Amino acid sequence: MTRTHTMTNLRYVARAVLAGACLLAGVEAGAQGDDFGMSAPPPIPGYEPSTDPRDFSGLWRAKPVPGSFLPFVLGAELPFTDTAKARVDHALEMAAQGTQLATPHIMCRPTGVNQAIGPIAPVYVLQNAEKMVFVVMDEIRDIRQVYFADAHPADLEPSYGGHSIARWDGDTLRVDTIGYNGRGVLNNAVHSADMHMTQAITKSADGLTLQIEITLDDPATFTQPVTVKREWAWVNGQQPLEFDCEENPREDNFSGMIFEEEYLRPICIQHEGEGEELSKVVCEKP
Fold first, then answer.
1. 19 CA to centre of own chain
2. Closest to 83 measured CA to CA, from 161, 188, 179, 162
3. pLDDT at 219 over 70
4. Segment 34-48, tens digit of pLDDT
5. Distance between CA 145 and CA 273 in Å, rounded?
6. What is each CA distance from 86 to 16, 19, 93, 131, 189, in whole angstroms?
7. Which of 22, 44, 179, 186 is the most exposed place for a label (fewest CB within 10 A)?
């Protein structure tokens, strides 16, 4: 087996372990190193956070949820609708049997609401007078554009991350997001296209923390709106790194995995040749 194949398998094992951990709302806090113990680039001298309360530019990392090493887990007790609760119970039952359900994160798809709530990788924020851009270069790669506007466009095209507009309320940024495509997974429940997320983001006086209050309103998923609080910490001078979320995965990466949502299934899969037979990539029409 080549080094490339070995690293490929390890990467998918890591994703599967992470996804399995997401199933456990009460998982114990683990090490809080950069990117699950991987070494991080050294700080850049002279790179300091701005104390301007309306300047979010720079690199940030979501802090883990108390009682978990993951930043995006919503909590143990959530007001799920019967349909959403059935999906959650099914995922937990499959996990207990050692079977992983495919998720957007494992399959290198945009994670939408999860990415906005608590991205696993650092987030690079750029801003000007027209918009604020949240860039994630690591797993999962994502660009979220938040426009300073009074209203969403009338001809909104649904997407994984939805459409976000924002305004300043004093020194608090209030963000409103709609227009989801209904393919996001939250605590094992698949939220609908009617998801409405609002965020109130306030920067600490020392410029080292973003305090974020998030409200999720989706009648198909929750019987009442859910509000959670998160914090993002300033990352001292480190720059985001490239990450290759692999294409054409090997077929044994997904043996035993269940694809409840067919759009998550890889279109192209690499099949390893046996003996002198050449390996080949087989693609199917999506």
1. 11
2. 188
3. yes
4. 444 445 555 566 678
5. 43
6. 22, 18, 10, 39, 8
7. 44
Average of pLDDT values for 184-213? 95
Give the sign of the dihedral formed by CA 146, CA 261, CA 225, CA 116. negative
* Three-class SS state of 14: helix
Q: Give the Cα-Cα-Cα angle 3, 138, 253 (nearest 5 degrees).
A: 45
Paired strand residues for 136: 142
Bridge partners, 160 (sequence order): none
Please check whether residue 228 is in contact with residue 117, taking contact to mean a CB–CB distance below 8 angstroms.
yes
Q: What is the pLDDT of residues 124-137, one digit of tens each?
A: 999 999 999 998 87
Cα-atom radius of gyration of the chain, to the nearest Å? 20
Distance between CA atoms of 246 and 108, rounded to whole angstroms?
8
Q: Which of 78-82, 158-162, 166-170, 238-242 has the lowest mean pLDDT?
A: 238-242
pTM: predicted TM-score of the whole model, two decimal places? 0.77
**Tokens matching residue 158:** 């649904």
Query: If we measure between CA atoms, which residue out of 204, 184, 187, 209 comes closest to residue 195?
Result: 184
- Mean pLDDT across the chain: 81
Positive or negative CA dihedral for 187, 227, 196, 124? negative
